[in-house]
User: Fold these one by one.
Assistant:
Number 1:
Amino acid sequence: MSVVSRTVAAIPVRTSVATWNAVTDLLAPAGSAGRDRLEAVTNIAAILITAEYTRQAPIVVIPASGPRIRIRTAHGPDAPEALAVEIPLAVRPSAETGWTMSLPCGIDDIDEIRTALAGHPGIEARDVTDGITVDEPVESAAAGGWSIDYEEMERP
Amino acid sequence: MNTAVHVNTITYAATHVATNMLSSIRSIIKGSGLDPGRIRESWDILEAGIAIWLASRHLKSVTLEVYDPRKGGDDLVGRFDFTIDYGYYSGGDGDLWLDPETVAYTIRKNGGFPARCEYRIVADTAPGRAEVPGWTTTAYRSTTGFTRHAVGTAIGGGNLGAALAYYIRSGT
């Protein structure tokens, strides 16, 4: 699994909503198929950014194909420095359909946020203490997956 | 170069105070047993207005009014004010900071509200403010019979300070 990481400047360089807008711009160009889904969760994501959960653990995007994306936000004195070195993604993974997203969330807010995200399939909140662990579908052999049977290799 | 730094300092302080004021109001809402859905659904409108009016120095205060819709007329049951002081730091070089304990203390002292209570957020602004979509003019609910308790400055940045106070009904 390959991973691409980015850091987006947040408060006080940007408001929480402007920070999410910057994340949205990073992931999906204007007019693309996936952008509406990101814009629809702006207020929810802005609250998570304000609480700095996205500083503690990354937003994780799993595209339909291509590398997984991890996005953190930089706050306080780190934010101006992060703004100066923000780098666009070579391929914007949420431009097309089929991507999923995991947003970090603290335990005090997770019930509220999960309820709010119920109407947004493919976007979920995970406990911020889980770090970067995100569930993803296991590829089956029928889908072309393969594995090494170490027990078989060790048999005489 | 100095001008650019000065502009950034003012903008950053306004953004810091605006967002953390809104976050503190959300903490009061959750800590008082109220439904956080309403502030969440209006977050973009609220943050835009507060940040713009802070940066232009038109914002005087932001108030959380809690009311009981079962009561007719005089329905206020609680109120929390964040009052802006544009000269909190005379030197103008203050750090960006937030004191969550001031907010937590206020929640503890005020106590909770019945779940049926609702709330709204009111910004008091000086004449000449920019119009921000989603905001409308209104008047405060009466605070007759309430006593105002000042807690102290909860958020600071640049020249700005945001002082928190709460109201408790003291008589009829």
Note: The two ends of chain A are 33 Å apart (CA to CA).
Number 2:
Amino acid sequence: MSTLEVNKITPVSGGTTVQVGESGDTINIPAGATIANAGTSTGFGITAANFRPNVNPLIINGDMAMAQRNTSVTGITDDGYKLCDRWYEYLSSLGTYTFAQEAQTSGNAFDNGFRTAFRIDCTTADASPSASDEFWWGMKFEGQDLQLIKKGTSNAQKLTLAFWVKSNKTGVGQVNFRDTDNSRMCSGTYTISVANTWEHKIINIAADTTGAFTNDNAESLQIQWYLDSGSNYEGGATPTAWEADSAGDRNASGNLNIGDNTANDWSITGIQLEVGEYTSSTIPPFQHESFGDNLFRCQRYYFRTPVLQNQVFATGFSSNSTTGRGLFENYQVMRSAPSISKSSGTDFAVHQAASSTQTTGLDFYYMTNKTSLWYATVSSGLTEGNGALLIDDGGANAYIEGSAEL
Amino acid sequence: MINTVKKLNVDGVFSNTYVLTLENGNTLYVPLDEANTDYQNILQWVADGNTIQEAD
């Protein structure tokens, strides 16, 4: 290899372009070399349009790694947040299901870095749902987290949804973006081509210059994967442009009918929502978060304390011989003041000095998005004015959970 | 589905908290916060003709 040693290469007189190599050539930059930019040069192949406008993923827990509530739930017949954090399901009289956080050990999703998936198994079928029955799975978003989409303005952005999906059934599934501030919707479809095989799907969502998302901590958007439905949600047309919400369009194209047989299952993971229009070849990589970062974001909406023998939950004091009270701190600042629930009121104890006294009752009150107060009763034995701890009574059954879900 | 809703008093004063029992037996302490969806459900439950119980 010959070496050309010069300090400057310039175009021939009258020209403005210097070419290096030919089409198809590879131009190698050695390891350790630096390409310097004086600060104003452009055209390095990376422009502002290639960068996401969001720092963190718009989807929380898209890899299904976080499951504070449960990793498996059987006998599901109603709606709620049951399994992986942030993921909600609406189910109305359309079969019975088992949900599981399914470990991945092989397959296309595993090979692309996903170790967990949300799996839905039908355990009691309903092959003839009533007209108003429906089953969808998805996520709800705060309006203040969606302002970057610029919905309802002349600069409204297109969106791209990408995900890995697998089912025993082949067919078409419909996904709806429902603007709950302005009762509007826009949808797309995906096709499961090969049964029992992870497939990567892309859905493009149009920009909407009508109806801005309210800039607050309330729900503004739902993304719904329709899994089954009665006739009220069929018969229309899948809207690929934003339109006024129409029940008959919500599952107009979907034919997966996951509830029609107990052999059916549907799994999903690797969900990402990007601002902009992308294809399967241009979609940016999934933004993998650390376990800690993912947990932090999930706990804005829900936390559950670990179950550990003699665990300390909170500090406080005794206001008389039968009452302990104090401050309980949420794990994170939450979306709103949370609803608090707990294991049995007798799973706890008030610890004072060197002894613990089992509680006969435990209440929570004056909840804010940061703290709440606890009020425990015992049969006797506390010393008024002394410090106290709220702890597990030794049975390793006590837990406290808070929910500020949308 | 909501079964009952009762105000929670502490030291004889309403604590801005409702004790909500669900038909599945679960109990929630629900804050008086309009952004809380359980509180929104209580408001709807009342609008549907149900009554919040006074504290014990």
Note: The radius of gyration of chain A is 27 Å.
Number 3:
Amino acid sequence: MASSYGSIFEGIRIADFSWVIAAPLATQYLAVHGAEVIRIESSHRLDTLRTNLPMINGVGPDHNPYYASYNMNKLGIRLNLRHPRAVGLATMLIANCDAVVENFTPGTLERLGLGYSKLRHVRPDLVMLSMALGGQTGPESSYKGFGTVIQGSAGITHLTGWPDRDPAGTGVAYTDFFAGPVAASVLIAALMLRKQTGLGQHIDLSQQEASLYALDAALLQQTVNGVQEMRNGNRHPAAAPHGVYACRGDDRWIAIAVFTDAQWRGFLEAADRPAWGFRPQFETFVARKAHEDELDRLVGQWTAAFDAHAAMRLLQQHGVPAGVVQDARDLTQDPQLQFRNHFLDLAHPMMGDFPFDSLPYRMNGVQPVPAHAAPLLGQDNAEIFKGLLGLSSAEYEDLEKAGVIE
Amino acid sequence: MTAFPSHLPLHALRVLDLTAEMGSIGTRLLAGLGAEVIRIEPPGGHADRRRPPFAGNEPGVERSLVWFQFSAGKLGITLNLDQEDGRAIFRRLVAVADVLVESQPVGRLAELGLDYGNLCAIRPDLIQLSLSPFGQAGPYSRFAGSDLIEVAMGGLMYLCGDPDRPPVRVTAEQAYAQAGIQGTVAALVAVWQHAVTGEGALIDLSAEEAMTWTLANNRLTYSGTGAITKRAGGGRADLSGGNRIIYPCADGYVGFLRRSDGHIALHHWLDDEHVETGMIVADLQGKPLYGEGAASPELRARLEQVLQSFFATHKKRDLVREGQRRNLIIAEVASPGDLVESDHLRQRGFFERIDVPQFGGSVMAPGAPFVSRAMPWKSGRPPGLGEHNLFVYETLLGLERDEVITLRAIGAI
């Protein structure tokens, strides 16, 4: 058994036509655990993440930690899918694969001659996962988007922010990070079904629909009660105080969540039993809720004197759920993340050593460490085209000259 | 087209769901993929049953819509792990289960003599997924957690909100959800491994660590350059190049992503709508919006003003339809009402009608997050309190009715 659970999906080969975040994130789980995931890329349609800033140790498509963070342990080839001679080559590759993952605008692969209806005759047990933003069907299936904007159509933006303000949205392409793991599970399940029955399938996963599961009960509240949930800042219907409070320093904050009497007593102890804390308007939850603005102000006055991490430790010592609103630097210094060896220095041929995120779980105490960093553009052309597909050197060079293989 | 026979890939998988506050969306995903998920509740009912909103605004034990969303498609049993007899029953359940998913307070199961080592004595190939705020060990492992805390500690909250207000959480409970959905991936990886090697696994997942995967390139940017990204409001994010994304419009908001290669189409749209951009288009001619040789900040600011007033006077669906027709990246900021009325979701059949005897009727509920003829989503309703006690205890475990009654009488179930 591999020391880091890196060969669990040995024998599974995936043709990964996807790009940007959600779909590559999904296939990365399998790649880290030993599936051979082949990113199929092209200079005609460079993955957006390969052009993002910052670039490390140089400029170019192989200097992007952003791309690298969702493509660890994968292989990479360069194939110009729009070249008329590419479809044969792609089909040959897929015939050697167990699964295809793609997130093109619906219809794109069909137009390229690589639709499921054709591929299932090439490989009847093929699992094809299509992960378009709005799915393969429906009036909005042709819509273009990125997660930064799709979080709006997935209902997340509207419900995030302050009730007296325009919605804030999340500041990241959050739907990618929700649809990605959901898709990974669906893909593994489909491969399991194939193992059990020999059957392939075409899965239409809409990133929007998968992300609707991030909304908890908001949709049911609408359908069952006809009530529209509203964004509510950092408040919680069953907790007070429950919010984010300023600490000493510039833009330093602590999150505090008091749900129980014991936690409230713990807060009062941590705060050195302030007189205000024992007034009737803070004695019960109901009373605290009724005076929540004042409560938040008073809690904030207390936290303002503290360094955020010191306040967290003090509150936690008294059994109060509290946590620093950590920025990127805090994360790299976080002793718990260090304990878990969270930041993995992977050696990247162009970027050098760079700290990537570890998957968030340990199996039997062992961390799933990728064997290698993300592929350079076209890094595995020879291995795949000549090695796996058996092209001769002459054929390979001919296709390169013709611009089919880049 | 020939119909594929329908199968549920996890139909032979039995999952004990001992989640507390976090992770139950993950076990719902397992149920949807076909697993038999048995939600274990204390005899008085899981705490989720107390959470509003309630169907019809009636706070009954069967009426929580949060409980519904988390428990649809699962079986439900009651079991008291604080009692010796309850723990004995739990051990018997483990003997016939494949996977245990739990998010109990760190250390609780060990105190009860139900830690993984003990359970392996009963079921050597057990797969146990343990979800916790920070992990099962380490300096923060015994911290009191809550979703707000893990969203804050994991770095996402710092990036969200308006600059003149505190950072704000993302809606609902994203740390709990991320622990759940990433945990489900890990569980399925272990199930796959088990099919190959026969081995079980103890999976220790940290919600804080799971949240570090939601930061896009913000932590990477710090590691690469030392720059710390801050919340910027207006939905601004890494892929928006610092530009505002969220725009008020006549009946709500839209999200619009400016891309250098899209601004010609944008200007043509504004022109076609007779918006005063003449000067701007002329000045911008040939220049990209940002990057090398870009238009001046003053010009960009004027364009921004024009855009804001254009959006403000149009309805969101019209803007999205027309903008998309012109290949621009624009989407509605959908409210729950918008989603429920969405033609797109309706035509895709996303919402399903589910019979809910507990409500005395049926509801339209979120349905499958994917569509596949060969692998249909397993829908369902949430279980009533103790609804499957007899099925699980008598049929699965082989207890006699008298035994079940005794366990009930002493409060073990």
Note: Chain A touches chain B through 153 residues (CB under 8 Å).
Number 4:
Amino acid sequence: MHLLYQIFIDPFVQMGSAPDLFAQTLWEGMVAGVLYSLIALGFVLIFKASGVFNFAQGIMVVFAALALVGFYEHGVPAFLALVLTIVVMFILAFAVERLVLRPLVNQAEIILFMATFGLTYFLIGFGEIVFGGDPKVMISEQLGLPSGSYQIKMLGGFVQFQKIDIAAAIIASVMVAGLGIFFQKTRIGRALRAVADSHRAALSVGISLEQIWVIVWFAAGIVALATGIMWGARSNVSFALQIIALKALPVLILGGFTSIPGAIVGGLIIGIGEKMGEFYWGPLLGSGIETWLAYVIALVFLLFRPQGLFGERIIERV
Amino acid sequence: MRAPSGPEVAVGDVLLSIENVSLSFGGVKAISDVSFDIRKGEIRAIIGPNGAGKTSMLNVINGFYHPQKGRITFKGETRAEMRPYEAARGGIARTFQNVALFRGMTSLDNIMAGRTLRMNRSFFWQLLRFGPAMKEEVEHRRRVEEIIDFLKIQDIRRVPVGRLPYGLQKRVELGRALAMEPELLLLDEPMAGMNIEEKEDMSRFILDVNDYYGTTIALIEHDMGVVMDLSDRVVVLDHGIKIADGTPDQVKRDQAVIDAYLGVAH
Amino acid sequence: MFYREAGQYKTSYAADQALFPILQDKVGMLLILFAAYFLVPLFASNFVIDSIFIPVLVLSLAAIGLNLLTGYTGLLSLGTGGFMGIGAFACYKLSTYFPGINIIVLIICSGFFSAAVGALFGLPSLRIKGFYLAVATLASQFFLSWCFIRVPWLYNYNVSASIEVPSRTLFGLPVTGPNATSITRYVIVLTIVAVMTWMASNLIRGRIGRTWMAVRDMDIAAELMGIKLLQTKLLAFAVSSFYCGVAGAMMVFLWLGNAESESFSINQSFLVLFMVIIGGLGSLLGSFFGAALIWGLPIVMRNAPLVFGIPVTAATMEQITFMTVGVLIILFLIIEPNGLARLWQIGKQKLRVWPFPY
């Protein structure tokens, strides 16, 4: 009885009695959610266009961030470093298409997925050799990102909004809007959607799969770079970050693997759900439930809707 | 093309009866208020232009699709919908339009898979294999070999089915369905994509199955010649509605049928 | 020319369906068993046994477990580490509560605990398919990892959240704990792995294996054969987890001698998955190949510079190993997506026709 009270009544009482804390947690959750969405966005881009679940997205985030900081530490001014990193991500996209995607072009998706595992391990080793294994500090100020925070008196207390988080939300929104327009309105965007539907059909109307894949991996690389900057601005850049990629999976399950708005919605739900869950229900179970809560949320969700929130209903025809 | 075979199987009572069945997907009506029956021992053809709902009809009989309205009576038992497991248990076997073989397995294993319902040695014996499990395996292997002989696919026993040409795959699929010792065999376009010789072979197999094993057969087929020669009775669907039902000769002359096919008849 | 089946015909179905129908295979297997039981203990050093043979055997068993689930039944699972952990902790608790019972019995029993949990986490597999199922198994992996730290009862409230293996004996010989010799532990591991591999191959060749593969290849058609999907999938999860659980228990009791929660993390799951991919999905032999390669390669690479006299730091070597493993995975998938086992089959095929080219 007491347990039921603890699970179903108490947390909400707490929320109500300290609304400023509630708002703070909600905000923290949204911030985490935005970052999750960014990672998920990278996955969606690649999955949409090539049907590949790119496990290496996480390491790409780290790699991009490290490259940026690496250039800066070698004396390159911040904005030039940014440009150079973009070039590096393009080279990476090109290399991946040439060396990994092209030889495996007709294989089953699971094979391609495994290949991205290999890519991940390779980039981990390569990255550590080139950049060293120590955590690095992101060059947020040099890039013009704001620091400090706003403290707003509201709801009977104080709620703190880090400026960098606000910047992250804005940048993410701009990126999502831009990508959305790109996919819907431009010729290349249309081609990408065609490729996502059917490789063979796209080939038969003359779309070059190779070009599309390079573009898509490059776009994912840019998203990875933005993600890396944003994540790195809040905490240091290190290789441990790459496991965050796995967190994108629950996001993708909720939002669907091919939906850009879905990635946002999914990210926000997971971010908020996680933070609230940890803060209000965490003490019941012992701390650290953040490590698995998102997955359990996704699992429960899948049981009711096996194709995700925005995913397409798969009607099996025999 | 009817082979001069042994004694004709006497066509008996109604084995399967479809009553007022309607099926829709979202807004699309695949089948509207269709009723017909299949008698024991006969070969019943279901024909109609593309999109008429023929495969959907088979799927309803199988239990893959559940009709929104209507009833199915099989072997005397009436139900609103069938479930795949009940259909299999009850003795309904099926082949598919696009050959649904287990591609990772050999022909032999595929056909042995058809015996699964009848194999019930427990997990414990399966672990050890010698003893009861082995005896069961050998006994069923014997039955499967009979089918392999019947279909003349001895030399492709150990070939993974993914590597077989289309015509042979269809034969293996037929073998797998036969392995279930079905009372009702549903064949979805068994001749699709075959040349004349392959069609003759398949026709002979179908007739032999009906004659030798007494299996009731319902088949969907586009080749009119095959339909006319093989079947005892025909039901014609068009846009999900039944437009004719009778012997091949009756159906051939039905105006509605001719119209539906726009005068195209082999 | 050497590997010819000509002249070997079978006169009964039973003989035809034997495990090693070809004489050369039978002889080969006996030779391998002979080498494993007699030559290795005689000639291999304790170091080699401890650092290569025992780990490869234990990991092969885990790989077989995962292969049964993912390779034969087509259910992608990223929860292997967690299931291994259940076996390990179950064995530890059992040995605490029943100190008198034979440790091998306890190791096998702990497999049942893993099987039960595995079946439980396998329940979603009826509704959820393919890739989404992998995410469900991630939920089980992360949850179990969390449990291994957060449930102190599991490690007997040890302050460092790790478990130390108690000494146990068999017929008077110490088999676990610091007094057990490498050879004793090796022979026990070898026997358990050999017997369980034999059982797995029996399952695969019979009704259950066919059912699993049918579900993998086309579950709709499988349903038509009267195969009950949920039971088949749950059985796959249960058996697979059993194997992983026994492997986990052996890992702690007969190999490492201790364990922390990190031993059964997501990284362990990935490691075993790589073994299965590289070795060959759907092949028991491949599980051994994969384990040998994934485990052996870093060891070879770590020692190679010393052999060649090149000065390279341990950290750099590890990074190069990462890169090499990554490249190897990609290369394998390009050249032979069916893994080492398929390469082995191709090799045998060439042996059949040697010295002719085809």
Note: Strands of chain B lie at 14-25, 28-39, 43-47, 69-74, 77-79, 92-95, 184-188, 216-220, 233-238, 241-246.
